[in-house]
Structures are given as C-alpha cells and as structure tokens.
Amino acid sequence: MTPANDWYSFSGAWFKTPYTKLEKFRAKNATHSDLRDACENAKKYYKVEGELFALFAATSNTGSNYPILLANNVELYPQY
Fold first, then answer.
1. What pTM was estimated for this model as a whole?
2. What confidence category does residue 52 fall into, taking pLDDT thresholds of 50, 70 and 90?
C-alpha cells in the first residue's frame, strides 16, 4: 500500500516460464525497497504483526498471487 493507504502499483510485464508455464511478473522500475515499504504500509494498515509476510503480484484483490522478479531478474521470495 502507499502511505495514503491506496493500492501500490508498478509497471512491468507478465511472462510465462518456458517449461512449467508458470505466470510471473517482471517489474520495470520498482526496487526491493519500494516493495518492502509498500508491504510495511500494508502491515500497518491491516494491523499485521510479525514477520510472516510475502510479496506477490496480483491482477485484482481477489486474483491469484504471482511471483515478482525485479528488473535485474532477482525473484522475490518470502523469508519463511
């Protein structure tokens, strides 16, 4: 979420992995710290405590969760 409690959005492109056809999202300009800050804002807004939190791309608030790759092809994984 943004500091104003709006949904955080960023540009990029959807792609499918060659073998498993798993759909993923490659961020164009978002950095790890941008996404981490958005998660921290969401944790505050929803009053979530603890470290069990993960970053995923979604097409809607009821959609599936898709892995995110940063522009340098680093895939984001939950710590736990």
1. 0.76
2. low
Reported as a single tens digit per residue, the pLDDT across 7-36 is 899 999 999 999 999 999 999 999 989 999
Q: How far is CA 27 from CA 32, 50, 51, 66, 72, in A?
A: 10, 26, 23, 12, 9
State the Cα–Cα distance between residues 63 and 74, nearest whole angstrom.
Answer: 23
3-state secondary structure 3-64: CCCCCCCCCEEEEECCCCCCEEEEECCCCHHHHHHHHHHHHHHHCCCCCCCCCCECCCCCCC
Rama region for 52: left / alpha / beta (φ>0; ψ in -120 to 50; rest): beta
What are the structural domain ranges in the chain? 1-14+32-59
- Please tell me the predicted confidence (pLDDT) of residue 78: 63
